[in-house]
Amino acid sequence: MSALHRFLRTPEADAGALLLAALFAMALSAPLLFPGDPQAIAGPALLPPFQDWSLPLGTDRLGRDVLAELFHGARTSLAVGLAAAAAALAIGAVIGTLAGFAGGFIDEVLMRITDAFQTVPAFLLALAFVSVVGPSLGVVVAAIALGTWTGPARVARAEVLSIRERDYVASARAVGMHPLEIAFREVLPNALPPVLALSSVIVAAAILTEAALSFLGLGDPNRVTWGGMIAEGRAVLRTAPFLSIVPGIALVLTVLGVYLTGEGIVETTAVRRGLS
Amino acid sequence: MSLLAVSNLTKRYRRGGKAVAAADDVSFHIDPGETLALAGPSGSGKSTIARLVLRLIEPDAGRIAFEGEDFMALGGAALRARRARLQMVFQDPLAAFNPRATVARVLDDPLRIHRIASRSERPRQIAALLERVGLTADLAPRAIHEISGGQRQRVAIARAIATKPSLIVLDEAVSALDVSVRGQILDLLLDLQRQERIAYLFISHDLGIVRAIAHRVILLDAGRIAEAGDARAVIDAPRSVIGKALVAAAPRLDRSRS
Asked: What is the pTM of this model?
């Protein structure tokens, strides 16, 4: 049975994959279904949902199409979530591998730096970073990665500590391979699977952090984000709660989809390990 | 002049607050083209000495001279360059390779690192190495985990001879193989030694094999040399306590049932 087949037979994986597929479809179809600026005025202000079928989810305080904003917001959430997680995993894997493989003084220094980053709450770190550097998509990605690379670094280091004692590392040394090549070509690829298992948690956390930053007004002002939409709706929460509820539901479903998919992948690989 | 001269080699490990000597004042030498066997019960320090000789671990004390040069004084790039002359074959042929590697990549590494062949020449060299150890060139693209244990150990030997070394450390190199394959691998090793005058440091707990292929033997007990001498003479008439025990423990076909 193929890995994909097993993946699709896990119910949580099915649900997660479905949610993620819908999210990707939204993100990809946004410029086709809603060409033009999603932040442009499309109709009367504060139109409730399901009244006017040219604006199915209604409009916000400024008369902007909520559905168009939702679709374009999916692009931001996905882009930031994936980019921040990729950056965090890359930084963490490299630092963890160097620390675990070099050992001694280098290990000590790198792990104390990791401790320092871990002591500061990730969200505060992101907040401070964006406040200082200024809000833009790249800065938000960097700010989130800055607070989340420590988990992958610790997992990678633990894995490398066990791998570096294996015979194939000794044989690479006996062949005369450079230590850096051993670390990144022999050790790191074999230490990756448990690190990658963290990716779903990190993607979900990154999407939430991005939303929270936007909610506080620290997102990229030129992009629609779900966090920003919720913040926008907060002012009229009593009269038009749908403005906060709609992007809120989108956020919940996205994070749920990412978690369930990650869960499904872990399940699939666990079954494979059990069989071999 | 001997190829490898080891003197007063000492390595201690801490185990439960107590220092255990894995190598205790061990001295020996190997001549070019000679096979020296290190034999002893498990825990006697055989593998530690193998790894000390290769400087995969560092000794607490002692000197190693290899090809007339102080091997302990080398470091960094100079040490890596010298490693071409001093290779190793491990006991478990599966554990000794990166689980993601292919046969071609394993053999490519030494050729690339020691600049033995240019990028375009390497595939031909790899094919030649595979044929040299009795395999066929079409094995090159296969993954290491796809081929049999005997084939893997042949690939390990091909990797060891790729850099034309003068000494190969064989750490229980045939112990994990089944008996029919073991004979073929030993024949290959003897053949290589005859043709290329490679010396072997042959580490084994199997006195039958030691007697068959080694010129001289050193019997180890708790990190110390218990007995040393001509392989046949020592195994046929051991004088040390541990030697007698090892010979008595070795299974023999002619032993009568009681």
From this structure: 0.82
